[in-house]
Amino acid sequence: MFVLSAAQTRRCLVLLVAFHILVIAASNYLVQLPFSLFGLHTTWGAFSFPFIFLATDLTVRLFGKEPARAIIFRVMFPALLVSYVVSVVFPRGGFAGFEALAQWDLFVARIALASFMAYVVGQLLDVTVFDRLRQLRTWWVAPAMSTLFGNLADTFAFFSVAFHRSPDPFMAAHWPEIAWVDYAIKLGISLALFLPLYGVLLGWLTRRLVAMTGGEDVTPEQARARS
């Protein structure tokens, strides 16, 4: 991990918070668009949300667990608002106009609340698992295990809160199946694509941070000793 100045830390936090909110907004739109994959029901949101786990794992690896947790707590309430607005204005992939915000939508509010809860639970678990395993010599174990458990918590927290006994009959009937397929797809995408991408980005960002800070990649214990 790297020890940054206060200004560098603020800049990184702003960029990462904005990225998290952007991915959450996109995922809340895409999760309303179901489709079938090899005869199984899932949603397009399965392809966007793994970006957040990638960003979180890189944050823990490069800057430590406390900045990663700070990002989560800064994102969660703006994300709740953004999730509701996106889902109301773009219901089921269509455009309802901003006047739709004048009327409270309980169905969409459930989706926004589910997104809020899933994000907090999944990301905090991801940070905890990754931080516990990050010192292992095999670099891929920490991101693989944090993705495995973080995505599981995130997926089932979201679908159970959003669609259990939902007024949408299709989602109410099929949400467990959709959740499992969604989890399997996100896990497959993460392990096949995002895990190698993590390795590539880790190497690139490490070189950039060494050049930017003039410091070196140190362990959390060394970072605490220097602070």
Characterise this structure.
With 227 residues, the protein is mainly alpha-helical. It has a single domain, classed as Arp2/3 complex 21 kDa subunit ARPC3. It is built from seven helices and two strands. It has helices spanning 6-30, 50-63, 65-89, 106-133, 141-163, 169-213, 220-226, and strands at residues 34-37, 40-43. A two-stranded antiparallel ribbon has the order 1-2. Helix 2 (50-63) runs antiparallel to helix 3 (65-89) and helix 5 packs antiparallel against helix 6 (169-213). InterPro entries: YhhQ. This is Probable queuosine precursor transporter.
Concise overview:
This protein is mainly α. The chain contains seven helices and two strands; from the N terminus they run H-E-E-H-H-H-H-H-H.
Summary tags:
single chain, 227 residues, mainly alpha, Arp2/3 complex 21 kDa subunit ARPC3, two-stranded antiparallel sheet, 4% strand, globular
Radius of gyration, CA atoms, in whole angstroms: 18 Å
Helix amount:
over 70%
Give the terminus-to-terminus CA distance.
13 Å
Q: What are the segments in which pLDDT stays under 50 over at least 5 consecutive residues?
A: none
User: What does the overall shape look like?
Assistant: globular
What is the element string, with H for helices and E for strands?
A: HEEHHHHHH
CATH fold type? Arp2/3 complex 21 kDa subunit ARPC3
Count of extended strands: 2
What quaternary form is this? Answer: single chain
Mean pLDDT: 85
CATH domain class: Mainly Alpha
In terms of DSSP E residues, the strand content is under 5%
How do the strands of the widest beta sheet line up side by side?
1-2
User: Can you tell me the CATH architecture?
Assistant: Orthogonal Bundle
Secondary-structure content class: mainly alpha
Helix count from the secondary structure assignment = 7
Q: In total, how many domains does the architecture comprise?
A: 1
Largest sheet: 2 strands, antiparallel
